[in-house]
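Progress report, Aim 2. The chain analyzed during this reporting quarter is listed below.
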Amino acid sequence: MQYKNRVILISFSISILLLIVKFFAYYLTSSSAILTDALESIINVVASGFALYSLHLSSLPKDGNHPYGHGKIEFFSAGLEGVLIVLASIFIIFHAFQDFVHPTEFNSLGIGLVIIIGGGIVNFLLGYFVENVGKKENSPTLIADGQHLILDAQSVIILIFAVAVVYFTKIYWIDSIASILFGIYMLTNGIKITRKSVGGLMDETEPLLLNKIVNILKSHRKDTWIDVHNLRIQQYGADIHIDCHLTLPNYWNLEEVHSELHEIEEIVNENTGGFSEIFIHADPCLPECCHYCGVKNCNIRTENQNVKIEWNDKNLTLNQKHFRET
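Predicted structure tokens for the chain:
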């Protein structure tokens, strides 16, 4: 079993345990805020369960029906988690409003608080661990699951404050107000997670990833790499697919071109820390390229180099050679 699969399995197992504990705390206290925390734990269990399946599916090799692999399922998994958070937040707001109109007296708050505080600490540590593993493994599923667990832990802070105030003041509607406020906070975060997953499914440009690839190319730039353009990046779970056009000297033979393209592939893979599949379309240089071409001792040069075009995430993604700097 892959490392990230073991991580999500741990998250799934702990989520089930915390779900049981939190509903027991609600049974003891009848607190709307504690019920809010318990209901979110249902989402944790469902989301972690589907995340476990999606990571298994994304690890399967490419096949005839999925030539780019199964990694996109990770974005779907993250999106499902976001949608579940949104639905849970709506239910929480609705339930809290009902309790606001018809407040319920609490029981055994001390025991309930101890249980919830313990669960919050576990969720925060687990969420921090899972999110960091997700970033290292470049896994949208683990990142979303970790963020959700941290969000669950943050709810404990609001919950403790609300329950403590109710305990000392006996003003029971404060419990409902706290649940409504956190429900709104959950709704906002659920929408953000869903929005990001939809962007991944639609191959929306990820600015940080694009900037990383551009910096790799810049730091290893060679004079013979006359021009790079039409750079596009797609993410399939932990795998990255890159394609671009590279302008090389037009007097190079096929073996020289192939060797250069292979070198670029190795450079990118060594510096991305994961698997990157790269497709490079080789373009021959044109006389219009001479003014920014840095190739030394070129016998076909029609114009001296008078500018060095700065590579950045804007001009490398343009679908044209950089005939004139803009």
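The longest strand covers residues 227-236. The first helix runs from residue 3 to 29. These observations will guide the mutagenesis work planned for the next reporting period.
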